[in-house]
User: Fold this.
Amino acid sequence: MARHSLDLTLDPVGDAVVRRCWERLHAAGLASPHGHASTSNRPHVTLAAAAEMSADLAVQAGSAVEPLLPVPVELGEPATFTGRALVLHLPVVVPDELRTVVDGVRRAAQDPRADEPWAPHVTLVARLALEDLQRALAVVEEEPPGAVVLAGLTWWDPQARTVTRLVGPDAGRVEHHP
Assistant:
């Protein structure tokens, strides 16, 4: 089942920096999000994800996060998550105030990982073969992304196939994704 998500979005400069990284990975023959053409595909930091999420909860999350945005953050050195697949990502160093708010939102959303520490990150490659790891790291390190600004919050509703901009530029706008 597809999962709802609340995602922190980057300002236009940070968005462009991450997209350039995706483009370089794609040009190197690696499966970055660059090739995914949907307008819902944008650099982001997932705040919470759950099988179900009400519009009221999404609005409450927006109200809780809005006073903290925009916020400059540092992107760390490339790292990986392991599991069913290797995920190459950039850890995001967020202020403690944001982390505290996110912890509350994750619990309220009944995020199945709410009991685990939040690991804010920007995904670079979602399914990376182990034999491609060194090549991917070399591509990312050619032009390390550095600092970006978290500027907005969106809600992905997989049943309605919509992205609602909750905070930031175009707040209240709903994008439909057939």
Summary: The radius of gyration is 16 Å. Helices lie at 12-27, 55-65, 96-108, 133-142. The chain has one domain: 4-176. The beta strands are 4-10, 44-50, 71-75, 79-81, 86-93, 121-128, 147-157, 162-167, 174-176.
